[in-house]
Design goal:
heterodimer, A: mainly beta, six-stranded mixed sheet, five-stranded antiparallel sheet, 11 strands, 0% helix, 57% strand, B: mainly beta, seven-stranded mixed sheet, four-stranded antiparallel sheet, globular
Chain lengths: 105, 113
């Protein structure tokens, strides 16, 4: 089967650093993507890893380890606007259930 | 770049009625995807097209659901007859090719009473 696991909720304070972890079991793996979705909005692309290691895409970066079937999205210098749901995905077929991140003052 | 355009934004209908959701992908994108999002099940891929051809429709829940892509700039998702359990947000997304980043439309919030 195909499955992606990520934490359901996280809370952090402004200015802090958090890491959203993701583990996956998929067939035909082509890479791991991360999307952000604000309440009432559409998912928007943040970052993609086709190869192992750290990938930086503008403000966002993401890490992948194929041998561990594991990836993470580090978020630094959190701002209130970072409060959103973050989805790990092995597109286009499988999305995780999302991690709801709340940034508090 | 207008992005992926979906219509309507909201649809409220009664059980048994036909519902048609529409999507215009980004020009030049070769792949189009229909997703359904609910609190319980998250984002589920219903069907995707490559160059207007349906590639995988295994996510379509029942025969009541059908999707078409008559040309590169338009797709529809039809539910007939609709049921209350079809209530969800339906997203259309497009990408340059199958594994490229997905660009999502703003979604259609469907409520079936």
């Amino acid at each position: 089967g195909q499955n992606i696991d990520q934490p359901t909720e996280m809370t952090a304070t402004e200015g802090a650093i958090v890491q959203i972890n993701c583990t996956y079991q998929t067939s035909g793996f082509y890479g791991l993507s991360w999307y952000q979705q604000h309440d009432g909005g559409a998912p928007t692309f943040l970052s993609y890893n086709g190869l192992d290691g750290l990938e930086e895409t503008g403000r966002f970066s993401s890490f992948l380890s194929r041998s561990d079937s594991y990836g993470y999205l580090p978020l630094q210098e959190l701002q209130m606007k970072d409060s959103a749901s973050y989805f790990c995905a092995a597109p286009p077929l499988v999305f995780g259930k999302g991690t709801r991140l709340s940034v508090i003052a | 770049d207008a992005g992926v355009i979906q219509s309507p934004r909201h649809e409220v209908t009664e059980m048994g009625q036909e519902v048609t959701l529409r999507c215009k992908p980004i020009s030049g994108h070769n792949s189009l995807f229909w997703y359904r999002q609910t609190m319980m099940r998250g984002l589920e891929l219903l069907i995707y097209f490559n160059n207007n051809v349906p590639i995988d429709d295994s996510g379509m829940p029942e025969d009541r659901f059908s999707a078409k892509m008559p040309n590169a700039s338009f797709s529809t998702l039809k539910i007939q007859p609709s049921e209350p359990r079809d209530s969800a947000v339906y997203f259309c997304a497009s990408s340059y090719r199958g594994n490229s980043p997905l660009h999502f439309g703003n979604g259609t919030r469907l409520t079936v009473t």
